[in-house]
Amino acid sequence: MGFFKQKFRSVKKLPDWIFWVLAVIYRIIFKCFYRVEIVDPMNYRPTGRGMIGLAWHNRLLFFPVLFPPETRRHTVAVISASRDGQYIADFAAQFGLGSLRGSSTRGGASAQRAAIQAIKAGKNVIFTPDGPRGPRYEIKRGPVQLASLTGTKIVPLAINAGSCWALHSWDGFQIPKPFSKLTLVIGEGIDVPPDLDDAGLEFWRKKVEAALLAVTQDPVP
Question: Using CB atoms within 10 A as the burial measure, which of 4, 25, 39, 69 is most buried?
């Protein structure tokens, strides 16, 4: 058993057909077992271009299917450069989502440069700002710095499940229970000033964190 486990962990990229099959199953489960409500007072969702979106790490299970295909085609997600991150990137590609590889712990500088280029090309850039290792619900400075450098709005995104199971992981990853309601809340965009110093970055980091927490609701266990 240990041999097969070691062999699997040495595989950095799985065949694309595996992710295609998983995506078909995923779509069926989503369509059959969940109700969805979209709360989007600023009307970001139909176009959804040219923004920096932030969503907590533990609420990503159904993130790819909550946005229209056109929006997904103009969106890239910052995903860890790890092997697990490769699996996530390959799965996300089945829904038209691009990826930028890197995080606060691996390849952060290169991911930031790629994010700047993506924004210049008119793409949305999505971060899980408390990933890849937490602390949970505490954002890093990277998205704030990117917004300051590019003049792009930061938009808080929360996927709130009516009821869910939570895994025993650092983030308490959420698996919504069948037949529960999923609410995608798209908060008001935040304009971050340019040329921020260290103190300014920390001030706006806390401000953005508070905005994301404001649209976040804890589900029933």
Answer: 39
Residues 6+ apart with CB under 8 A from 24: none
Report in angstroms the alpha-carbon separations of 160 from 36, 69, 213: 10, 21, 11
CB atoms within 10 A of CB 158: 20
The predicted-structure confidence for 30-87, as pLDDT tens digits, reads as follows 999 999 999 998 887 766 668 999 999 999 999 999 988 988 999 999 998 888 889 9
Give me the phi and psi of 111, to 5 degrees please: -65, -40
> Which of 28, 56, 57, 35 has the alpha carbon at shortest distance from 163?
35
Residues in a beta bridge with 161: 182
Tokens representing residue 71 in the block: 């929006």
Helix axes 142-150, 198-214, angle to 10 degrees: 110
Alpha-helical (H) ranges within 101-156 are 108-120, 142-150
pLDDT value at position 133? Answer: 86
For 195: left if phi > 0, alpha if psi spans -120 to 50, otherwise beta; the answer is left
How does pLDDT run across 145-154, given as a tens digit for each residue? 999 999 999 9
